[in-house]
Amino acid sequence: MSEPVSSVSSALPPSADDRWRPLQGFALLLLWYAFFAHNYLTANDGSRFALTAAIVEGDTLEIGTIYPRIVDASAHPVDAAIFDGRIYSDKAPLGALLAVPVYRLARRLTDRLPWLVYAVTVCCASLCGALLGLLFLLTLRDWGVTSTRALLLTLAVGFGSNLFYWSTVFFSHALTSLLLFGAWFALRRYRHRWWLIAAGAAAGAAFTSEFSALPAIAGVVVYALARHRGRALWLLAGVLPPLLMLAGYDYLLFGDPLVLPYRHQMFFADAHSTGFYGVHLPQPLELLRLLFGPQHGLLLYNPLLLAALVATPLFVKRWRSEACWVLAIAGALLLALSGMDTVRVLGRCWGPRLLLPALPFLALALAVVDGQRRWLRWTSTIAIALSVAINFAIVNASYLPHEIGWSAWGDLVRGFSGLGSGNIVVLTLQPSSRWLALATLAIPLALSALALMLPALMRRLAAIRARA
Model-level pTM? Predict the structure, then answer.
């Protein structure tokens, strides 16, 4: 059970500003995510987008003719499955299916590929990242963290973690993280059986969004059984529809509802043919690489999680069983991925993306830092500042580093030489001057200032109307 912090501030009635904090957090995250959202495709998001386009343009699930034509010239169309001579996306289908109505609507307005990609990315990645931030903020408030502090921590995680980058590209990670965290959020906020059904639907949908999230989904289900016992059976009413949808999709592609697309992957099928789709027993050394390595280091690319790690004993002491379940859900994903062949075979990929669903759970430990010893507060502040700098550089680089390892950090450092170069205004207008690219950052900065001042402006308007 949740154990709210007992504090004078949490006992006071919420102020007008407090009621605006969740909306402010959501708006700020969505603004910056959408501003840096990509309008071009790589192999991974190209595979998803090709499925969306194939459904809308050709009423088919085959992507063989569309996929090679839409990916960025520097990418190779390798993220595909081949069966009976037909080419399909090798990705879990939920993201592509959710993008279908967005694509249809955008297609009525334009036929230009960059704007179609941008519309899909904003609605299916940026919006998901912002909604995840909203749930994170509401969780902190439920636990007694003041609204202002909750907003600051949410922005720290939203801009100082890899969630920033993965909310700007049409990959599955922002959507999967939202669904997984949302399932846990609904279970924790249980008021009626519909909350359990919604949690089940989110958990099932998370699997249809990203297959590798299954261990964390299992952790959420165990949490539901431990917390709600017999009532947890209501999860089945939510879990079954997305799983049946996935089974139907697989049957249409491969004639077998139990075969995932990875089994027929064009180039890496061997990696998925051993163990359970490439998953074996956890490997301690691989776990260390996932946490600290230059290729996949979750803690290396997200230093704020180091501060969260230091604060974890205090986190467990304050919220006990709830904190233990949060860490268990994240730990299940970390351990499972440490035994996953694809992490080693696809070592040149930017590894932290597979671990993104664990990130908001691990970051919850930052909630206890306020009011602790000065050294912990300063350490957390420095870690958050470093995280924001690293992830802002990643977003400004506007692409996945081609050479993953220590050399990639040189690319990130050079990303600061062209601040603002990765945003939609620059990608559209392509100004010749570096200073003009930098000046475009004034747009989200001005809108951010407006969002932060909105409560005061509303109070001023109310006062003017009252006097009138």
Answer: 0.90
